[in-house]
Prior knowledge:
The complex is a heterotrimer of chains A (340), B (305) and C (336).
Chain A: E1 5-18, E2 21-34, E3 38-42, H1 49-56, E4 65-68, E5 71-74, E6 77-78, H2 84-90, E7 95-98, H3 102-105, H4 112-123, H5 129-141, H6 147-150, H7 160-172, E8 178-182, H8 190-207, E9 210-215, H9 218-224, E10 227-232, E11 235-241, H10 242-247, H11 252-260, H12 299-303, E12 309-311, E13 315-317, H13 322-327, H14 333-336
Parallel strand pairs in A: 3-9, 3-10, 7-8, 8-9
Antiparallel strand pairs in A: 1-2, 1-4, 1-5, 5-6, 10-11, 11-13, 12-13
Chain B: H1 9-16, H2 23-30, H3 32-38, H4 40-57, H5 59-62, H6 95-131, H7 133-148, H8 151-162, H9 166-192, H10 196-203, H11 208-244, H12 255-262, H13 271-298
Helix pairs in contact in B: 4-6, 4-13, 6-7, 6-9, 6-11, 7-9, 8-9, 9-11, 10-11, 11-12, 11-13, 12-13
Chain C: E1 10-21, E2 24-36, E3 41-45, H1 52-59, E4 67-72, E5 75-76, H2 82-88, E6 92-95, H3 109-119, H4 125-138, H5 155-167, E7 173-177, H6 185-202, E8 205-210, H7 213-219, E9 222-227, E10 230-236, H8 237-242, H9 247-255, E11 307-308, E12 314-315, H10 329-333
Parallel strand pairs in C: 3-8, 3-9, 6-7, 7-8
Antiparallel strand pairs in C: 1-2, 1-4, 4-5, 9-10, 10-12, 11-12
Helix pairs in contact in C: 3-4, 5-6
Amino acid sequence: MTRPALLDVKDLTVRFRTPAGRLTAVDRLSFNIAAGETLAIVGESGCGKSVTAMALLRLLRSPPAEISGSHVRFEGTDLLALSERAMRDVRGNRIAMIFQDPLSALNPVRTVADQIIESLKRHTSLRGPALHRRAVELLDLVRIPEPHRRADDYPHHFSGGMRQRVMIAIAIAANPRLLIADEPTTALDVTVQAQILKLIVSLQKEFGMSLLLISHDLGVVAETADRVLVMYAGRKVEERPVADLFARPLHPYTRALMRARPTPGLRRALLDEIPGIVPSLADLPPGCAFAPRCAHADETCARLQPVLEGVGGGGSVACLHLDRLAGEKPRAPVLEGVPA
Amino acid sequence: MSLDATDILPRAAAASAPAAPKPRRAVRTSSFGYRFLRSRTALAGSIGLALVAGAALFAGQIFPGDPLDMVARPFMWPLTSAEYPLGTDMLGRDILVGLVYAARVSLAVGLAAAGLAVALGVVFGALSGYFGGWVDQVLTRITEVFQTMPPLVFVVVVVAILTPSVSSIVLGIAVTSWPQVARLVRAEALRLRDAEFVQAARVMGMGHFRIILTHILPNAISPVVVAGSILVASAILTEAALSFLGLGDPNLISWGSMIGSGREVLRTAWYMTALPGLAISLTVMALNLLGNGLNDVLNPRVSLT
Amino acid sequence: MSAPVQTPALEVRDLVVSYRTGRGPLSAVDGVSFAIRPGETLGLVGESGCGKSSLAKAIVQLVEPTSGALKVEGHDITGLNARERRALRPKVQMVFQDPMGALDPRQRAGTILETPLKLNGVRGKAERRARVASLMEAVGLRPEFIDRLPHEFSGGQRQRIGIARALALDPAVIVCDEPVSALDVSLQAQVLNLLRKVQRETSVAYLFISHDLSVVEHIADRVAIMYLGRIVELAPRETLWRAPLHPYTRALIEALPRMDPGVSRIADKTIVGGDLPSPFAPPKGCRFHTRCPIAVARCAIDAPALSDAGDGHLVACHLASGAVPAPNASAALQPA
């Protein structure tokens, strides 16, 4: 890592107390994000990716959540050690977040300008008429057509994509250093999804922000991220620079995930299924969590939990059979598909 | 924005339930019986209610004879005689026996009135919510007419016209309380009629009434059960108020009529009013506890700890 | 492939679905025509508000079409009385988007699968039991699951029940309305593979509706692209993917996220701008002209007709080279 990390997370663990017992939603997760960099966390529902985002901002209610870890260092400060009051100054100011469902994140009875102004008041020194001017500027920045006219509209006047633009305007109002985007385009149509992703990426460049993108969609991740972290059942199974990961996925789960997805232009009669389902977080197998569904697993995998091992290019993979997998030719769908 | 772990967790837990080695456990903890027993409110309410109902059912076995018989000297205070533990009234009738027999009338009126109200409300609510459109318009207007009438006044009028009897009281109470049930069921039916499983039933050729019976009502029943138990309580109160006003069935003894007759000697023998009053309060409380408890038991989102 | 004179499993002709709403009339489906032959999958792609859900509902008779014809195995449903319609109802079934919402939470798997049989005259209890067992086997559910409630299944298993229910009545067509959108990638693959296996075994036709072109591209034989109530392009899957003619189709393909960071990065893409215009006031002329990168003056005035560009490739664009108005539109609509 040549650039100093803006965010450095070490051994982040999130547990929940539930009637069904205590379960570990995020298990000793470590990662970092450099200034201006995009890290994507990818995985299926229940893998802990959203919980991770919420835990970073300490947005999880406790109880039932219990957050622990060595540190979550952001700009040199350990967020886990901050008081709730100090944490409030970080949220929305130095770190901003946008969510999957912009409608429920916006207040329905206040105009979008008001909601942007609220953020500006809290996080900047702007006051008076300058506030409204800046709100309109921000709407223009997120490419909302006719921002002067639209500023005094209410959220329900906007389409889903436009609402997400408003959310982004609110998020960047304070000029944050890190933007966390939790499935920001999942609820949107394909063309609008692409517009929003493009907007986020261009604003990121313009403002020099770092981006933590949470997504279930490997395609979105491939198009957006610099580095990718794959999670399964609360644990990191693979973390690689984006080009390496898609050229040569190493962990069996990453490979299975890629092969299960239809690849346009390369039709296969059947997709490669991942047998079984995600294990219950309350009742994880003692060894590798993916072992029961893994084509490469043997009885060692069922007993021993693999540790993360470094691979080239600053990547790491948690698999007991890494040597064998790294040696063989990866069966990535890009190489394998048979044109119909 | 969702800050609550419950949004994330049940999904993970539910998805994994079938794969867990002991799938039966998940089934049992979500069953009605299990949750009912874990809910202290529901349990306390039903125990209280069972005591009252037991007394009412077995009144004839426990105290053979007519509760209106004069058995001892009048104005005997409670706890002064082992034979008549709750004393006697101004005519020398045993108050304990009176309370037990009166429980029959009060509970019968309460259950019958609530039952009738629920039946009416379910029919109106289900039809109006499921079909919508003009059916809903018409039925909702009718519901509103009944809802805007002041309940007690309306019951008094009905009972006065039909002459006081248990059935006229039941009818009067039911007619004023069904709109609450109708509104509840209508809201549920409105929500359920667009559910995909209802669309699926239509696609496979199921008729509207069958859909209402097999899909809408079973899924709408939880709030109705809760409302029903509260309705029983309020019907008991209304019956007591009527009897107190002298509009009860003259041939039967009820808690309300006991209070009504005790009123005249309130200064000298307040126990004659207080004891039936206490019986009413305890029964109504038990029913409300049961109602609130059922509300938690039937709502899977509430965790019972 | 089978003989060209084969009766289509489903034929939709000039279908219009309009609603009266508080904001005025809304024409959700505005003159859509296509046909699907037995054993074929027609993919239908469009973004929200394009009318694909209304089209699906009209086909399974959940809403009444305003005009147009709807033929199931050659029988026109729209002209029939209620009783005759009921007899044709089992022929068109549906698989829903939300596997949880499509199953009554209080009914066990066995009851859910038995109900369509009961409703459609399978009298004997033993016969129904046997049929339920074979349906469960066909979709890969273990027989002991028969007494489970929907919440005791995983998302993928629930969708299997939904598919089994749709199959119960031996339909000619199954309308699959976003059947995998609510599922995780690994479960998506299971359900898509199951749909394909079922089709091989039963020759049922699918109308597969999705917003996700990559899923449709995987499962469909032909693909129709819908925009604001109209089909703008319809072509065999391979043709549509390799040589799309309509600018909207091209925009969809360009916007599709690819798993190839060496070639496809969002920052380098040209994404079609703007939002979907309000369906209450669709643009005059070509409905896509407000967002179209190549629109000319004519596009704002004349609505282009769906024309044949050769080899069953239909497109509605004035600027698509090679597209000639078909003298006999119905001939072009028949599957090759």
